[in-house]
Specification:
The chain is built from 13 helices and 2 strands. It is mainly α and 220 residues long. It has a single domain, classed as Hypothetical protein, domain 2 (Endonuclease III, domain 1, Orthogonal Bundle). It is globular. It holds the Pfam family Adenine_glyco.
């Protein structure tokens, strides 16, 4: 029970989601459930990048502001942002006004479009899903060999603000791993969702000789 807390409904949850009222619905309905939508995956990685050096509560409370400011993280629209958009965003008190991170989102949208031409972001990201027997005790780590490999692969493709810790948090949230605490009531729900989830795949990203597979092997 050290990494769990009892929620108002009397059931145990991951300890971290007891830190703020807004964490519980996010934890129960989103965190750790598998996602295969390119736009949602892009949004989450962008928000994790903005979180670097900050708390997730800060980002979660500003998430709707981020969505409005970045056109709901439509990859095509964000990729067309220019210096005028950067200046607009630097004046937006509803988001994190960090030039480097704002410019990184725009850059990353452009890099994402390049990758989508090869297949899908979902197929690429899910190529880094770890083997089940490689998982350690839930919530016992902040990086993994797979998150290091994902970070390395993204950086090789020109992405920014995507370090191994950011990549690991992204993998936790998007269901590439089930990192809910062992006694958390949501762990079984996330596990069932992962069992029923059809992994996205395409030959370019997910075959044994694909970039995801080879880069993961190099980082083990």
């Amino acid at each position: 029970m050290a990494n769990e807390f009892i929620a108002p409904d009397g059931h145990p949850r991951c300890l971290w989601c007891g830190g703020a009222p807004e964490f519980l619905p996010y934890h129960d309905n989103e965190w750790g459930f598998p996602v295969d939508n390119d736009q949602r995956l892009f949004e989450k990685l962008c928000l994790e990048s903005f979180q670097s050096g900050l708390s997730w509560r800060t980002i979660l409370n500003k998430r709707e502001n981020f969505r409005a400011a970045f056109h709901h993280f439509d990859i095509h629209q964000v990729a067309r942002f220019n210096e005028d958009d950067v200046q607009r965003l630097l004046q937006d008190a509803g988001i994190i006004r960090h030039r480097g991170k704002i410019e990184a989102v725009i850059n990353n949208a452009q890099r994402a479009l390049e990758m989508i031409e090869e297949g899908s972001l979902a197929a690429f990201f899910w190529g880094f899903e770890p083997a089940l027997d490689a998982l350690q005790e839930p919530q016992s780590q902040t990086t993994s060999p797979e998150s290091v490999a994902l970070s390395t692969s993204l950086k090789k493709r020109g992405w920014k603000f995507v370090g191994p810790t950011t990549a690991f948090a992204f993998m936790q949230a998007m269901g590439l791993i089930n990192d809910h605490a062992s006694g958390c009531i949501t762990r079984k729900k996330a596990a069932q969702a992962r069992r029923l989830f059809t992994r996205p795949a395409n030959k370019r990203h997910s075959s044994p000789g694909s970039p995801a597979t080879s880069e993961l092997a190099q980082n083990k």
